[in-house]
Amino acid sequence: GGIITQTPKFLIGQEGQKLTLKCQQNFNHDTMYWYRQDSGKGLRLIYYSITENDLQKGDLSEGYDASREKKSSFSLTVTSAQKNEMAVFLCASSRDRNSGNTLYFGEGSRLIVV
Amino acid sequence: QQQVRQSPQSLTVWEGETAILNCSYEDSTFNYFPWYQQFPGEGPALLISIRSVSDKKEDGRFTIFFNKREKKLSLHITDSQPGDSATYFCAASWTSSGQKLVFGQGTILKVYL
Questions:
Q1: Which chain A residue has the Cα nearest residue B41?
Q2: Which fold has domain B4-112?
């Protein structure tokens, strides 16, 4: 088995601040994802990466940057935090990018903007 | 534009009853439909999935019924237990999209004793 570790669990920042969320996986999976979860809106894909140093935009990439410097880690940066961005950010990984592979999720990081 | 829609938004059943969660989609090229279960404070976890070549998939108390013509599917949870109380997400993808899953907005299920 493996695990997805997201840090921090809670991230509090000020409006306009640049904030970074980190994710580590020990599955040795190729593909990693960042999803945003808002109440009543499901999960929306922000960025994903099919291998080290690869980045692919999802449907919600505006206002975010991502970085995949190692196979095991994937970070997400909110470039200028806004109060309407308070949500739970979920990191996930899958064996590869083929359809039908299970996504394994972390427990989430909650962003609070004051 | 919501490509995957779920209903109801929330559902309450008594222990032992069958809970029925509905999902519909717009894109006829979708061919893989997983359901993810999420407990409070945790990330979603794969519960059961179906491919469009099948019309039914069963795993214990959980069954997916799939209607390709109507672009609808449903998750039936028989003999519901309080431990089944969670949010359930229907998702969809197509072969060429790889793992770009499109998620529905979720159904919150509560099972009372």
A1: A107
A2: Immunoglobulin-like (2.60.40)
Per-residue model confidence as pLDDT tens digits over A14-66: 999 999 999 999 999 999 999 999 987 889 999 999 999 999 999 999 999 99
- The residue of chain A nearest to residue B94, with distances taken between CA atoms, is A99
Domain ranges of chain B: 4-112
Which amino acid is located at B68 in the chain? K
CATH of A11-113, one of 3.40.50.300, 3.40.50.1100, 2.60.40.10, 3.40.50.2300: 2.60.40.10
Characterise B106 by phi-psi region: left (phi > 0), alpha (psi -120 to 50), beta (else). Answer: left
Angular region, B78: left φ>0, alpha ψ -120 to 50, beta rest: beta
